[in-house]
Amino acid sequence: MQELSNWPAAERRAITGVFTDIDDTLTTEGAITPDALRALADLKAAGLHVIPITGRPVGWSEPFALAWPVDAIVAENGAVALLSSQIRVQPSSGGREQLSKRYQQDEETRLINYARMLQVAARVTREVPGAVISQDSPGRETDIAIDHSEFVHLPPAAIAQAVQIMQSEGMNATVSSIHINGWFGAHNKLEGARWIVRELFGRNLDAEMANWVYVGDSTNDQLMFEAFAHSVGVANIRRFEAELSHKPRYITQGERGAGFAEVAAALLAVN
């Protein structure tokens, strides 16, 4: 991982879009900081696309998709997208604005998978000592989440056991900085990024990878670090460094939201 200052100006000048994780990348202690929020606004004002991709649930993401200056938020590890008010908002019958919500799976598949996921969640909490479902679980539609560092602490062995149970049930499983996420389906953060670029812009992300950067902080960002030539880890990724098979190309000096603000400043300096 190189210092962010080593990112060539010519490469930064070619960037037209930013994908970013949310927890511990945009947020600090669970909330977005003024410098990170200002960085989002400055990027959008400069004409860059900004799309957070998160393992957080769609219900949790809704207020941020409305309030933040972003094109969309892709939630639940690529399964569902919320289009921001700046892109497309659907008025409800009561006159209130509602976000446009899009899914990768059809409704029947989601209902079948949801019932299966509840069974797996029950098994994990039954078999793994100390395991509890995440407090944001009521907002989830396409995955389950076990808390390991947000409100409770699970040791590494328990995290590994939870992952093994999910995988033994045929689920995908990833570990973020706060949760263990499990789901059925072929989607993930990278597929979610490809999908949202097609949905929003009618374009092929793979054909324009050199024009996008990904910013993250944890082991569940490895697929994105591997895929994107321009990838940045905020400084707190150091705590996962030994576990990373695929590391970001660059690393910031600041942690969490301050680190994201550094990335924005590096991009804006050449725009």
Plain-language structure description:
By secondary structure, the chain is an alpha/beta fold. It is built from 8 helices and 15 strands. The chain has helices at 9-13, 34-45, 58-67, 107-127, 156-168, 189-201, 222-227, 256-268, and strands at residues 2-3, 17-20, 27-28, 31-32, 49-52, 72-75, 80-83, 89-91, 97-103, 144-147, 172-175, 179-183, 212-216, 231-233, 250-251. The strands form 4 sheets. A 6-stranded parallel sheet has the order 1-15-14-13-2-5. It is globular and about 55 Å long. The two termini are 24 Å apart.
Quick take:
This protein is 34% helix and 20% strand.
Keywords:
four-stranded antiparallel sheet, alpha/beta, 15 strands, 8 helices, 271 residues, single chain
